[in-house]
Amino acid sequence: MIEQTDKVHKETISSLRPGERGIIQNFSVDHIPLKLQEMGCLPGNEVLLIQWAPFKDPLFLSINGNNLAIRKEMAALIEISKVLSK
Amino acid sequence: MDKTLRVALIGNPNTGKTSLFNALTGLNQKVGNYPGITVEKKQGSCHLPSGKKARILDLPGTYSLNASSADEQLVVELLLNRSHSDFPDVAVVVADVENLKRNLILYTQIKDLGIPAVLVINMADRMERQGITLDIALLEERLQTKVVLVSTRKKQGIDQLRGLLDSHEQQASGQCVDVSDIDNSYFKHLQEAFPKEDIYRLWLVVSQSNDLKRIDSDLLPVNHYSERNTSEIKRLQQKETIARYVFINRFMKEAYQVDLTKAKDWRSILDRILTHKVFGYLIFFMVMLLIFQAIYNWSSIPMDWIDQGFASLSEWTQNKLPEGAFTSLLAEGIIPGIGGIVIFVPQIAFLFLFVSLLEESGYMSRIVFLMDRVMRRFGLSGKSVVPLISGTACAIPAVMAARNIENWKERLITILVTPFTTCSARLPVYLIIIALVIPDETVAGINLQGLTLMVLYLLGFGMAVFSAFILDRVIKNRARSFFVVEMPAYKMPLFKNVAYTVFEKTKSFVWVAGKIILAISIVLWFLASNGYSDDYHRAEEIVTEQVADNPPMSDLELQTAIASYKLKHSYLGVLGHAIEPVIRPLGYDWKIGIALVSSFAAREVFVGTLATIYSVGSEEEETIKERMANDVNLETGKKLFDFPTGISLLLFYAFALQCMSTLAIVKKETNSWKWPLIQLVMMSGFAYLVAMGAYQVLS
Fold first, then answer.
1. Residue B38 pLDDT > 70, yes or no?
2. Which of B101, B145, B668, B682 is paired with B580 by a 20 to 30 Å CA distance?
3. Nearest Cα to B5, choosing from B42, B40, B57, B41?
4. Do residues B136 and B235 both lie within one domain?
5. Rounded to 5 degrees, what are φ and ψ at B133?
């Protein structure tokens, strides 16, 4: 796990609930694999949490229209701003 | 140089690349030595409208040229190696219409390498259902290429693609994204260091986390260029990716439109059920149960036919051909040996059928999603489920499938434990022994033999998971774990694809196993029907004398007694008796011992060996199973294949590593002899102890 001390108030993908959306704000390139970025995980793109597995891990996401799953550990490193649902 | 056009199919996984390959080449294809979905090099050929021949290479699924797995590295290295005999004259980039943007990332990378590239937009039949409209002309203009809409399901666009390949020389090979724009000074220095090379080729070599080895020799020194540290390189890679998306978005907004009101969203409905935290697991369990029951029950009918067929063939050969060494070799050596393996074709075909249905339909990714958390507890990844499930077909493609696991430690553990899963080669051994020692009865609606088989499968999985748990504690972690798995759209599996997979893999199984078995059968037959001792040559006299005092025997009984005496004193018998002390604690006699030793090459040889041993000297039309069931252990006077011996054998085969090919592939994948040797000693040693324990307790 990565140090989380000053991240308490920041929202990340792991704080989404199924059906909720967010816009990706920021993450450290050292911790997010290029492959995920190539799949559309880039600042400004939208992320939707489709489903989570038991214990909320891994997370089934739609990022920029691509359906994929990542672990909670990594999702917690990607900051977002939540989009209020209609 | 010949005039054959070299074409490479490149594309993201799950884009239907293999279907396109099948559609282009038909049956003119060659799969590498081992089965596995596009894991090994697959080649085929087709004729173009001009009459020219094209050689088509199906490259492993690749998300991008920035390699994060061994498969992707293979693709990148080939594309950077102009002198390689497989280097393509033209690349066909296969994209899936639903994820076009992401697929175009790879397309722009290949284009920027300067390789002429045609874009195939596959699964065009899904456009209407998803409410997608495309402006092909605009795409062609902006990408400076030809775009073909293909539906392999409806056989559309294939001829158009063939025509385009003919005129590939006219394909423009302009650049999409100029990496130099990302960081002018850095790329200027890089270019100055290697003035002769193209800047994107240089950048691709510099930016990879692994050194690229099999590339143009001029590019090799670029591996060691390091003006920036890893973290800075990663930042540049992100900028490059953004630049590519900017390039793509510029025209995709116009060229690609989705009308969500027209889209029928089957995926989310299915996913709500199939990845549900309760129903998801329940369905997964039911699917597995169905597979194993089906393998056991459905295939028993054709198997009985094959069994009877070979018994009759053997007898027919015996009677119709002139008597002599050749007839005896054929009837007692080769036919039963080959029959011993052909009989398992129905089951192996079923197994490959189910594994390929799971892959083709997209359900496999859901299993990965459901199982990741559980598997992680044992040092594995959700992706280890794929090797573990396909390991039920064969450990070799399964070990290769572990390439998709990004984390080295998780991958290594998966490779090490996969051979515990019950592969199709164990099946013949299990089936014959289960038939001999487990009653064919139904309790509470469940067939006991089928249940035993399922328990053996669970035991294999259980052992794999348990040893992973131990290994997780022993092996030091080398790299940060990360896990990204695509959840593709659900697809109705294409009959043609599934049929090819089942046919190719079953054929390769029978062919590879058949060759070994044929050779071993001949050797065994020779050893079993020749001897050096006096006992062997005078068998008839000795036995006749022995029985003279006893109550009279029928002619048949006498013949059987002579044959068995001869076998005992043949070369094979002598050899078997020599190793008997080692295996007696496990409840085996010398015949099983011979079968055991010969099956160290490959497990399924066990049955072929027993079939040969039990055929030598017998002239009855009996199936091998009947002969084995009637065999009596001379020392105990009980049936040889009784319950304790049967269980002991089942356990031995469940755990021992008896497969040369597995050892070879593990060596190749881990790049050292250390791991396969550890695997061999641990697995086989454990098998011996467990089998001995079980026999001693039960008998």
1. no
2. B682
3. B57
4. no
5. -120, 145
Q: Are the beta carbons of B23 and B162 closer than 8 angstroms?
A: no
**B235 & B294 share domain:** no
- B191: containing domain: 179-252
d(C-alpha B64, C-alpha B10), whole Å: 10
DSSP state of B477: P
DSSP 8-state class, residue B211: P
Does some domain include residue B274?
no
Query: What residue type is assigned to position B651 of the chain?
Result: L
Token pair belonging to B575: 């050899």
CA dihedral B123, B126, B131, B134 (to 10 degrees): 20
Q: Is residue B571 part of a domain?
A: no
Q: By the CB < 8 Å criterion, does A7 face chain B?
A: no
How distant is the alpha carbon of residue B129 from its chain centre?
34
Number of H helices, E strands in chain B: 32, 12
B27 close to B48: Cβ distance less than 8 angstroms: no
Q: For residue B42, give the nearest of B62, B63, B24, B21 by alpha carbon.
A: B21
Q: Are strands A46-52 and A21-26 parallel, antiparallel or unpaired?
A: antiparallel
Q: Which residues of B touch A71 (CB under 8 A)?
A: 372, 481-483
User: What is the DSSP code string of B319-367?
Assistant: HHSPSSHHHHHIIIIIHHHHHHHHTTHHHHHHHHHHHHHHHHHTHHHHH
**Average pLDDT taken over every residue of chain B:** 84
Identify whether the C-beta of residue B415 lies closer than 8 Å to the C-beta of residue B665: no
Per-residue pLDDT of chain A (86 residues; tens, 9 = 90+): 444 444 456 799 999 999 999 999 999 888 888 989 999 999 999 999 999 998 888 999 999 989 999 999 999 999 999 987 65
Instruction: Report phi then psi at A59, rounded to 5.
Output: -110, 135
Using the structure block, give the residue that is written with the tokens 């029907």: B529
Cα gap B570→B453, rounded to integer Å: 35
Query: Which residues of B are annotated binding-site positions?
Result: 11-18, 22-23, 25-26, 36-40, 58-61, 122-125
- Quick one: B246 and B393 in the same domain? no
* Residues annotated in a binding site of B for GTP: 11-18, 36-40, 58-61, 122-125
| Residue in B485, B283, B284 with CA at minimum distance from that of residue B404 | B485
Which residue is closest to A67 within chain B, CA to CA? B487
Pick the CATH number of A5-83 from 3.40.50.2300, 2.30.30.90, 3.40.1190.20, 3.40.50.300: 2.30.30.90
